[in-house]
Design goal:
- It is built from 16 helices and 18 strands.
- The strands form four sheets. Strands 3-2-1-6-5-4 form a six-stranded antiparallel beta sheet, sandwiched between helices. A six-stranded mixed beta sheet has the order 12-13-11-16-17-18, with helices on both faces. The protein has a four-stranded antiparallel beta sheet with strand order 7-10-9-8, sandwiched between helices.
- The chain has 532 residues and is α+β, with helices and mostly antiparallel strands.
- The protein is globular and about 105 Å long.
- Helix 1 (2-51) runs antiparallel to helix 9, helix 9 runs antiparallel to helix 11 (315-356) and helix 13 (397-404) packs across helix 14.
- The chain has three domains: 38-168, 2-Layer Sandwich (Beta-Lactamase), CATH 3.30.450.20; 251-337, no CATH class; 366-522, Alpha-Beta Plaits (2-Layer Sandwich), CATH 3.30.70.270.
- It has helices at residues 2-51, 54-61, 68-73, 76-81, 114-120, 123-126, 174-184, 200-208, 249-278, 282-301, 315-356, 366-383, 397-404, 406-421, 448-461, 491-507, and strands at 86-91, 96-103, 108-110, 135-141, 144-152, 164-171, 188-192, 215-219, 224-232, 238-247, 387-394, 429-434, 437-442, 466-468, 471-473, 477-484, 513-517, 520-522.
- A hairpin with a 2-residue loop joins strand 12 and strand 13 (437-442).
Length: 532
């Protein structure tokens, strides 16, 4: 009978624990690939700041006239501070205007590999359908895998026409792999798909991976389980394989629970036989039946929160107390397991938040802004409400970067975003969409005065200087405002029109706000009439 109980329990309980550990492994692989994608996003955002810049725009069109651009903006400190190995500037025909390789360990310039030069001629790098199209991914070089980002070269207002491509790249080296491993708190191994000496476990995983099965889980030993995932290069071809290794703690806890359970059953059987042979009485048999039913209920329901009641003071009571202690221990282990799973869920949520928020200011990024606009516009359409979209940027921000440096510029952007967040309503969304450009989405703007009040509050809030690292800085902002649905119903057009109003405001003295109108902009303040 005990053998049958053991076999049945082993089949049902341990299979459940195997399913839990497999799901947990898949989540860890997803966290690792998400952390890797965050590295690409970080490189791409860094590249965007350089590609969408008037100085770069002028240099790529006339390098001879703007030859001071390289020495002023691309010294060796740029490579060191941003952990970059390569920077390229290509004109609109795809011809290289500037290119440099840098060894971060030796801190000296190195020759650009010929294999990388071939990639620079690829349409995947140089072709941009529109100003919002970019490329970020990985390429395999003989020297190692390379993270690469290619952005169209635009003005500081993110406007075209496109005059070329700005490329940044850094090696996906052992230090970066260790950084990803530290992020997910698990050992991480990376193998190249073209490596003929790839370990057998990677080869077996590669045969099982596909678009339909992007993650492969393998129980590689009694104490280790591993998850595998493919990483494709910029051409959509598999380039790398990730292997995340985890100890089989969940399965080991399941085995321990089964051991406690079987020991309890064995102990119960021994005591039961002994007491039946020594003491013949209805009371003893009843109490043993109660213990048996209690253990049976636990095996069926899995509920460890109840204890076996003890009323008398004899040998059987000691046994019942030990059963309760065993159940309490099992419950404690179960609670620890649940706490660990909850912590991992929180980590997954944090990684998700990183994908939808600006890494510098902590504000929502363009992805989250689009999502919130879609919800807000649907509600506004149903309730016949208005929305306001404000474009804001910091007046003369380039002078701050040029005179005080990019680090101070980053702190100014963070302070600017914090101060705006303290002014806007809780229902509104403030997003940083690039450089010093911010977008404010205001809900339920039924009267133009609602947007006017907020715009004036924002401008008034920067009348006093702001102290940052011993510098007292006077900031001001120009604001352009577009209204849903009068000016447009899609976010992209609303942003373009609010940007037009923003630059109209800048052209009229800065530190003010303007409303947009079709073909021109509204005068700041009341929207009086429309000029056809």
């Amino acid at each position: 009978m005990l053998v049958l109980v053991f076999v049945v329990s082993q089949f049902f309980f341990m299979r459940s624990f195997q399913q839990i550990e497999e799901q947990n492994t898949r989540e860890m692989v997803a966290r690792t690939t998400s952390a890797f994608n965050n590295q690409l996003i970080s490189l791409n955002l860094l590249n965007l700041d350089w590609a969408s810049w008037d100085d770069t725009y002028a240099f790529v069109q006339n390098p001879a006239e703007h030859n001071a651009y390289i020495s002023s903006n691309l010294p060796e400190s740029t490579f060191v501070n941003n952990r970059l190995n390569f920077i390229f500037i290509l004109n609109e025909e795809g011809r290289q205007i500037y290119g440099k390789g840098f060894d971060l360990e030796a801190e000296k310039e190195v020759e650009i590999p010929s294999s990388l030069k071939e990639h620079m001629l690829s349409k995947a790098v140089t072709d941009h359908e529109d100003v919002e199209e970019y490329m970020a991914g990985i390429v395999l070089l003989p020297q190692g895998p390379l993270l690469i980002s290619a952005q169209p070269i635009l003005t500081s207002n993110d406007e075209g026409p496109i005059k070329g491509t700005f490329v940044m790249a850094r090696y996906f080296d052992e230090a970066m792999i260790n950084g990803l491993s530290d992020t997910v708190h698990l050992p991480l191994t990376v193998a190249r798909i073209d490596d003929e000496d790839m370990p057998e476990t990677f080869k077996n995983a590669g045969a099982a991976l596909s678009s339909e099965a992007p993650v492969f889980v393998n129980r590689e030993s009694r104490g280790t389980i591993a998850g595998y995932a493919l990483i494709k290069d910029i051409y959509g071809v598999p380039a790398l394989m990730f292997r995340v290794e985890m100890p089989r703690d969940i399965y080991a806890q399941g085995e321990a629970m089964m051991l406690y359970f079987m020991l309890a059953l064995c102990g119960l059987a021994v005591v039961f036989v002994f007491l039946v042979n020594v003491v013949v009485g209805r009371t003893i048999i009843t109490r043993l039946e109660r213990v048996g039913n209690f253990v049976k209920n636990i095996s069926i329901s899995g509920d460890l929160s109840t204890n076996l009641p003890t009323r008398e003071n004899d040998e059987l009571t000691v046994f019942e107390t030990n059963i309760n202690r065993m159940v309490d221990k099992l419950q404690e282990q179960q609670e620890e397991l649940n706490a660990e799973l909850e912590e991992r869920k929180k980590m997954a949520q944090k990684l998700k938040e990183m994908a939808t928020h600006d890494f510098l200011t902590g504000l929502p990024n363009r992805i989250l802004l689009v999502d919130r606009y879609n919800i807000a516009s649907a509600l506004a359409h149903r309730n016949q409400d208005r929305l306001a979209v404000m474009s804001l940027d910091i007046d003369r921000f380039k002078a701050i970067n040029d005179n005080l440096g990019h680090d101070m510029g980053d702190k100014v952007l963070k302070t600017f975003g914090d101060q705006l967040s303290g002014i806007i309503r809780a229902s509104d969304t403030l997003a940083r969409v690039g450089g010093d450009e911010f977008i404010l989405l205001m809900l339920e703007t039924n009267h133009m005065e609602d947007a006017t009040v907020i715009a004036r509050k924002i401008i008034e809030s920067f009348k006093e200087p702001i102290g940052i690292d011993g510098h007292w800085i006077y900031l001001s902002t120009s604001i352009g405002i577009a209204i849903y649905p009068e000016d447009a119903t899609d976010l992209e057009t609303l942003i373009k029109k609010s940007d037009a109003a923003l630059y109209y405001a800048k052209g009229h003295g800065r530190n003010n706000y303007k409303f947009f109108r079709d073909g021109d902009v509204w005068i700041s303040g009341d929207r009086k009439s429309q000029v056809n």
